[in-house]
Amino acid sequence: MDDGTMETAALRIGCKVNLTLRITGVRPNGWHELDTVFLPLAEPSDTLRLALRPGGGLALHCAEPGIDPENNTLTKAYRLFAEASGFRPGVEAVLEKGIPHGAGLGGGSADAAALLGWLNARAPEPLPLPELVGLAARIGADVPFFLYNVPCRASGIGERLVPCPEWLDAAGVAGAGLVLLCPRERVSTPWAYAAWDEWNRPLTEARNGAINRASQKPLDGASSIHWLENSFEPPVFEAFPRLRRLREQLLRQGAFAAVMSGSGSSLFGLFRDAGTAFRVAEGFREKDVAAYSHAL
């Protein structure tokens, strides 16, 4: 990829978990309103290797099954940035996936945000952050969060963000240990939303309208958050009972809270200290469950 004359970069790209995720209503177009808190994590991670090359356009290489090299979050990020900025460099990219697909960790969104930031840093006329965030929202609802890469509360369809770096302190979990489990099950996000719709069929249009109006109120950062819950859990756990059992195992091993992230399949548990989290993660790895420990 590099003949020694091109500018190159290797970007290590982390993921996210949803410390809380409530579906607060459904829009007339079928899109779901959310109230969620994103937390960035360093692992698992992807690596995006980039090199400027003569000409224009993005040439993407990825060995991960299921990723279309011609149509994905990276190609969309490049196209939208080029349209908005006029900057269309030739870029050769190799994506090495470490963030599992279908785990609710936002890997594709994180990759897109990393490419946007890299392009913007090299553009002759960089886009201001609000415009870059607007582009990111057109790629995916959680892409803007990865541009900030600090704890953020999100509402709407996930596009309205309020950075809340104080949230861990406010929630009383600063200094805790976090164990992230990435089981082999894969949960499709569109399927999870459809399953939630079926599970909540008794919701009336009037109630959804009232919920949606409430969700339009301005966010105020960390206050008023219903934390450590996930609206997807009932339908997802019904279809994937092993995920419920893994959450129960986290609780039995000392987690003071455990919850699924995003639409699944990843789950995390919070422990009183990082040392305990490290030992618990080791135990899950010995049972052939991918596990990562973090200090908050």
From TrEMBL:
Residues 226-287 form the GHMP kinase C-terminal domain. It catalyses: 4-CDP-2-C-methyl-D-erythritol + ATP = 4-CDP-2-C-methyl-D-erythritol 2-phosphate + ADP + H(+). GO terms for biological process: isopentenyl diphosphate biosynthetic process, methylerythritol 4-phosphate pathway; terpenoid biosynthetic process. ATP binds at residues 100-110. Keywords: ATP-binding, Isoprene biosynthesis, Kinase, Nucleotide-binding, Transferase. This is 4-diphosphocytidyl-2-C-methyl-D-erythritol kinase. Catalyzes the phosphorylation of the position 2 hydroxy group of 4-diphosphocytidyl-2C-methyl-D-erythritol. It comes from the Bacteria.
